Amino acid sequence: MKYLIVSDIHGSLPALEKVLAFYREQQCDLLCILGDILNYGPRNGLPEGLDPKGIAERLNAMAGEIVTIRGNCDSEVDQMLLDFPILSDYTLVVDNGKRLFLTHGHIYNEEKRPKAVTDCFFYGHTHLWKLERQADGVVCNTGSVTFPKGGNVPTFATYENGTVTMYRLDGEPLASLTLNK
After folding, report:
1. In angstroms, rounded to a whole number, what is the distance separating the alpha carbons of residues 137 and 13?
2. CB within 8 A of 106, min separation 6: which ones?
3. How confident is the prediction for the chain on average, in pLDDT?
4. Per-residue pLDDT at 9 exceeds 80
5. CA distance 46 to 122
6. What is the pTM of this model?
7. Using the 8-state DSSP alphabet, how is residue 72 labeled?
8. Alpha carbon of residue 120 to chain centroid
9. Where are the beta strands (DSSP E) in the chain?
10. CA separation, residue 109 to residues 52, 72, 125 (Å)
């Protein structure tokens, strides 16, 4: 299976539409959203193309292809607009024996990792993309497609056949790592 992993959309419909275009073009099987979907958040400015209802419509149309994690800006009110669950703090996806831990990053993060043994730890929240091999597996922060920080470009990731690849929002690859066998 091919997974597209994205975080911190923060209500920007133009950013989501670029992600979904890549999803379709690359024939991905599952969209994994690591939180902060509809709400732009009190510490951020208004994003380009703020349209939570438009985002809900686009995502609800593909609800059967989505796994979502709750971010610190997601709420029960947001859940009322969406036809798929968004209120889990994490999920574990197993693909061909590889364990992928998905979380937003405000509860579990690099400093507070879960006890679960994983091959790749995916998170967002900081809006700073990262892809690196560590002693206990690969760590991937998908950054943000709407509000990247630290001078970074908007980013998201894919996972397929044991390889994690980071992409710019325009679809250009930035980095790639293969999980240990």
Report:
1. 33
2. 35, 71, 72, 125
3. 96
4. yes
5. 26
6. 0.96
7. T
8. 13
9. 2-6, 30-33, 66-68, 90-95, 98-103, 120-123, 130-134, 137-141, 155-160, 163-168, 173-178
10. 27, 13, 9
- The single-letter code of the amino acid at 164 is V
Rounded CA-CA distance 46/176 in Å is: 32
Phi (first) and psi of residue 14, to 5 degrees = -60, -40
Amino acid at 45: G
Q: What is the mean pLDDT of residues 84-95?
A: 96
Q: Provide the token pair at 35.
A: 């939180």
Q: Is 4 helix (H, G, I), strand (E, B) or coil?
A: strand
16, two tokens: 């989501």
Q: Tens digit of pLDDT for each residue in 117-149?
A: 899 999 999 999 999 999 889 999 999 999 999
User: Contact, 145 vs 155, CB < 8 A?
Assistant: yes
pLDDT at 45 (0 to 100): 87
Q: Which residues contact 134 (CB under 8 A, 6 or more apart)?
A: none
Residues 129 and 12 sit within 8 Å (Cβ to Cβ): no
High-pLDDT (> 70) share of the chain, %: 99
